[in-house]
Design a protein that fits this description.
- This protein is an alpha+beta fold.
- The termini are far apart.
């Protein structure tokens, strides 16, 4: 016996979510506005979602999330990111909607999260275990990702990364780079002082690693 599960998620209005999911490669399978608003979307890879309209829904404090296990999180991220850049002109990493970069997390598989315009979290996780790197900042990065990307506590993630940088002040620029990139992302996401971190990355000769982060500051 095979079992198929399709999440049913809330949104204030159906038109809030349709363009967003179309940018992610979904297509509409059905829509009705009466007697109650609901719709379904699907992708060719079998990723199905349904939505129902709830005008009073508080999107900023949404508790709805879906875990999506995929064999290659980076490939799906690249596809989603390309669609979002095309639709929004840049990759949204702050506010609603937004997407986090793929990374490993403490106590969870590697992956990334997509938070849609209705505040629903799509938690994209790898079905395969990822090997530890053994780097001196690895535990800090894992803990920060668990707090900021899994729990949505960006302030805690920032504290963890800043503490790790102070503790390992003898680290090389290359060792610090993943921490600084993630710190810049979290500061942009929260409206914090990201420019100084970006300048530090550029001064170390890694400007080519900034990608979408630099676009956020330029705006």
């Amino acid at each position: 016996m095979s079992v198929r599960t399709i999440p049913l998620l809330p949104c204030r209005a159906l038109d809030d979510v349709v363009p967003f999911y179309e940018a992610l490669g979904f297509r509409l399978t059905y829509r009705q506005d009466r007697p109650y608003p609901c719709l379904g979307v699907t992708r060719d890879d079998g990723f199905d979602l349904q939505f129902f309209g709830l005008p009073e829904y508080d999107v900023e404090n949404s508790l709805f999330s879906v875990i999506v296990a995929v064999p290659d999180t980076q490939a799906l991220y690249d596809e989603f990111a390309a669609g979002l850049r095309s639709a929004y002109g840049k990759l949204p990493i702050a506010g609603l909607p937004r997407v986090t970069r793929p990374r490993r997390k403490q106590g969870a598989g590697g992956g990334f999260s997509v938070i849609d315009p209705a505040g629903n979290w799509l938690r994209i996780s790898s079905v395969a275990e990822e090997a530890e790197t053994g780097g001196r900042f690895e535990r800090a990065l894992l803990n920060a990702a668990r707090q900021a990307d899994t729990r949505g506590d960006e302030a805690a993630g920032i504290r963890i990364l800043e503490t790790a940088l102070r503790r390992h002040d003898d680290a090389t620029d290359e060792e610090r780079l993943p921490v600084l990139l993630y710190l810049a992302e979290l500061l942009i996401r929260t409206g914090g002082p990201a420019a100084a971190v970006v300048e530090r990355i550029e001064a170390a000769g890694f400007a080519d690693q900034l990608g979408d982060l630099k676009e956020q500051l330029d705006d």
